Amino acid sequence: MSSNAPRQPVRDLRFFLTVPHACSYLPGREATTLFLDPQESPGQGVYDTLALLGFRRSGRHLYRPHCEGCSACISVRIPVADFTPSRSQRRLAKRNADLSLHLRPAIYDPEHYALYAHYIRTRHADGDMYPPSHEQYRTFLTLDQEYARLLEFRLDGRLVAVTAFDQLEHGLSAIYTFFDPDPAFERRSLGTFAVLTLVAQAHRRGLPHLYLGYWIRECRKMAYKQAFQPLEMLDGRHWRRLIAP
């Protein structure tokens, strides 16, 4: 889906800063977030422009970290044409070949919410998304926009994972993935498989990039993003290759 919507100059948009709050990723640090004015509709043209500048979407909000004295959050993306899966990623793709994929609009679904709530309670009971609620889910992962989509992963009809993503003019943007935390599915590494699937989806649609959000060197939970090579990072206003350690 290619957008013909005019790109609104960034200087014509209004932004707001949050008050400093506890950082969700680095203990003992404070974070500040730059938000697009909620009165501005996150339409395709505006979104396309801001995504290139490192903005992400959460519900109706487009945002970017804006922390004084800290630049730990780095926007990263996979250049789809250059991506080559590793041996372990190829094995993982074969292991999940029995899953069926179903593309859905980003609207509320009780089955999706039940899996999301189970995932948060099991995997993230120590995080700021706990406890889960219907309202939290709706404001985070549902949006009545053409570019917002949910991709279901099913095993013999059973819902085992859902990944939320957006289709931009210049790539797909991975928003969030939740999956069945049952130990029986552990070897499937459904989070990693979701990323591999989105790379394949971007390639199929002729889109050059898959945006993976933010990567923090010191954050263990984000280390998985380095497994997708090559990886590009936003350095100021320019994207360049991130050298693998």
Name the overall outline: globular
Order of secondary-structure elements: EEEEHEEEHEHHEEEHEEE
The rounded Rg comes to: 18 Å
How many H/I helices?
Answer: 5
Multimerization status? single chain
List low-confidence stretches.
Answer: 1-6
The first-to-last residue Cα distance is: 35 Å
> What average pLDDT do the residues reach?
92
Percentage of residues in helical conformation: 10-25%
Strand arrangement, largest sheet? 8-9-10-11-12-7-13-14
Strand content: 25-35%
**Topology, number of strands:** 14
Describe the main β-sheet briefly: 8 strands, mixed
* Main structural class: alpha+beta
Account of the 3D structure:
22% of the residues lie in helices and 31% in strands. With 245 residues, the chain is α+β, with helices and mostly antiparallel strands. Strands 8-9-10-11-12-7-13-14 form an eight-stranded mixed β-sheet. It has a four-stranded antiparallel β-sheet with strand order 1-4-6-5. β5 and β6 form a beta hairpin. The longest helix has 15 residues, at 190-204. 29% of the residues are buried.
Topology record:
Layout: E1 15-17, E2 21-22, E3 30-31, E4 33-36, H1 44-51, E5 56-58, E6 61-65, E7 74-79, H2 87-95, E8 100-105, H3 110-123, H4 134-141, E9 148-155, E10 158-168, E11 171-179, H5 190-204, E12 209-215, E13 231-235, E14 238-242
Parallel strand pairs: 11-12
Antiparallel strand pairs: 1-4, 2-3, 4-6, 5-6, 7-12, 7-13, 8-9, 9-10, 10-11, 13-14
